[in-house]
Amino acid sequence: MLKREFRIILLSLAVSFVLTIAKFTAWFMTHSVAILSDALESIINVVAGAFASYSIYLTSKPRDENHPYGHGKVEFFSIGFEGAMIFIAGCLILFKAAQYFFTPAPIEDVDQGVWITGATTVINFVLGRYLLYAGKRSGSITLSGNGQHILTDAYSSVALIIALLLIHFTGWDWIDPATSAIMGGFILFKGYQLLRRSISGLMDETDMQVVDKVIDILSTHRRPMWIDVHNMRVQQYGSNYHIDCHITMPYYIELSQAHDELKAVDALINRELPKGETEFFIHTDPCVPTSCPYCQLLQCPVRSHPFKEKIEWTRSNVLPNRKHGE
What we know:
Layout: H1 2-30, H2 33-59, H3 74-102, H4 110-138, H5 141-170, H6 175-202, H7 208-220, E1 228-237, E2 240-249, H8 255-272, E3 278-286, H9 315-318
Parallel strand pairs: 2-3
Antiparallel strand pairs: 1-2
Helix pairs in contact: 1-2, 1-4, 2-3, 2-5, 2-6, 3-5, 3-6, 4-5, 5-6
């Protein structure tokens, strides 16, 4: 899978390099600051694509003594680097737009600029959608982040084409730096989004969608022996997950039986969770008398209280570090 991801990101890098040359050609022909802004963002595509290539290569390396959880966290550095590059590009674009407001330059060969920009926009849109699809399918946040960046480039290029057409038909050259300023603001926002995602991943912020999915899988395939699940923590490493949790089981079962139940949980999540590989660290808790009203093991030989109700597993009772009923 990672070899395929590496080939995809290299394709993205090659296409971005060619499109960057095309956009700078359009800028030399037109002298449009808006086209220059688009070309500057494409340079970031190339730099970010190169960093993403290294990130995917590093992610493919197996776990070792120094990296017991693997190298997947580098993907968060990758999208953080990409977000920072986008943010810097947005600042440069706003600076150039301000310059052209005070020292405007005539625009030439607008028709050629529209055709070149239009062609690069279509290619970037197709490439960006493909990267998002591949990233979602493989669980690679590097591919998804790169795809989001390239789609941002495509959307800003659409605004650029509209601006160039308006300049062509109206002759209002002030539209050029104004469009560049709008593009700069939009690019700054997209850079902030990627930086925010990077920081949340590096800080092990919980992805509640993954938590909900894990809870749903466990609830759907729930066994009577699994009295409750609590103190769940989910960490992401690239496309893989590391999950800690406590499972309460009857205190009298043998160690081998408890081990079999935990293996069943591990196999279940790895089979049902749609992407990546999940490593479980499960701590078993012995049941206590307060567990009896919620225990569905009706033939329990040591039950001290009758079964009362089934507790549905939700975030509110799976995430805290306490047994159900306590």
